[in-house]
Amino acid sequence: MPDVNQSQAILELSNLQKHFGALRVLDGINLTVPKGSILGMIGPNGAGKTTLFNVIAGVLPVNGGAIRFQGKDITKVSVWNRSRQGIGRTYQIPKPFSNMSVFENVLAAALHGGGLAMGDASFHAEEVLEQVNLAHRSETQAGELSLLDLKRLELAKALGSAPRLLLLDEIAGGLTDAECDTLLQIISDVSSRGTTIVWIEHVLRALRRAADSIVVLYGGKLIANGSPDAVLADKAVKDVYLGAGE
Ligand SMILES: Nc1ncnc2c1ncn2[C@@H]1O[C@H](COP(=O)(O)OP(=O)(O)OP(=O)(O)O)[C@@H](O)[C@H]1O
């Protein structure tokens, strides 16, 4: 990753620590995410990737270290406030309100996550559904969607709060190659509109195509950080991760 001075950084993690009892899941994470970039994150199962997202989003408190977002220390800021400040996320297992329509799900995100008033939230929800190509299913109950459309909805819900930083947690999992390409197109469009993306993903072909750089989490630390080609060719990375098979 190129050197980034503070004005170009949207997110800065300094010596982050997160422990579950004796388990040091995050053990001194230092990371600077440049504004406008797509940063891929990989690591073996259980490495702590989702925990890192939970810490950045404010769902879990840290045991040490600091998180700066858009130049401000947000280490002790509530999850609700972080969302209002511009941190959005998707979940590994999408859990929309199944009995609500697609539109209502995104509207709820815009109202609660984004803090928009009803009129603005409604307008924004329509825009976001256009952006992820789900507008034609606005009135469909979320529980009736195909996997790809569920992923589109998960993305739309995250975009509902108009994030400046979007955390994607394994959004390409379970899709066919063609479906993955469709999703990549949408994510690339989100990025080109100025949203910074940190993307945890096991589908490496997706990161290879989309990411500006990739970091590898292992043993509580980031053991690699560089261009997709360099990181995925790195011997230490292959040993701890790719050994499991791409
Ligand atoms: N709330 C919690 N309490 C105790 N241990 C937890 C908690 N959340 C996660 N862990 C543990 O922390 C470790 C990291 O889990 P995490 O889900 O962050 O890994 P991951 O890298 O996202 O894995 P995967 O690729 O399988 O999604 C695991 O050993 C997990 O069991």
TrEMBL record:
InterPro entries noted in UniProt: AAA+_ATPase, ABC_AA/LPS_Transport, ABC_transporter-like_ATP-bd, BCA_ABC_TP_C, P-loop_NTPase
Claim: Ubl conjugation is one of the keywords in the record: no
One Gene Ontology term, aspect cellular component: plasma membrane
CDD domains: ABC_Mj1267_LivG_branched (cd03219)
GO molecular function: ATP binding; ATP hydrolysis activity; L-isoleucine transmembrane transporter activity; L-phenylalanine transmembrane transporter activity; L-valine transmembrane transporter activity
Keywords per UniProt: ATP-binding, Nucleotide-binding, Transport
PANTHER family: AMINO ACID ABC TRANSPORTER ATP-BINDING PROTEIN, CONSERVED COMPONENT OF ABC TRANSPORTER FOR NATURAL AMINO ACIDS-RELATED
The keyword Methyltransferase is assigned to this record: no
Pfam family, one: ABC_tran
A GO biological process held by the record: L-alanine transport
Name of protein: ABC transporter domain-containing protein
Domain (ABC transporter): residue spans on this chain: 11-244
